[in-house]
Amino acid sequence: HLMPVVSKETDDASAKAFRRNFLEAGGLKYVISVLQSKALPTNVDLSVRQDCYEMALSLARCVHTLLVCVI
After folding, report:
1. CB–CB of 66/20 below 8 Å?
2. N vs C: which end of the chain shows fewer Cβ within 10 Å?
3. What are phi and psi of 38, to 5 degrees?
4. How confident is the model at residue 3 (pLDDT cuts 50, 70, 90)?
């Protein structure tokens, strides 16, 4: 799984561990970099570009959830 989906209590712990490890490994800077205007080549298909943005935003939301829980 790239991003765990929570369906059971044990999965919840796994998802939290993924978020924490992702954040500690510096994953947020890579997510943010995808959203920069020149991150993707100009010849990238629009649907691929949109999929990249959607995944980056999903990961950012996942990390944000972790940060809110920690604070």
Report:
1. yes
2. C
3. -105, 15
4. low
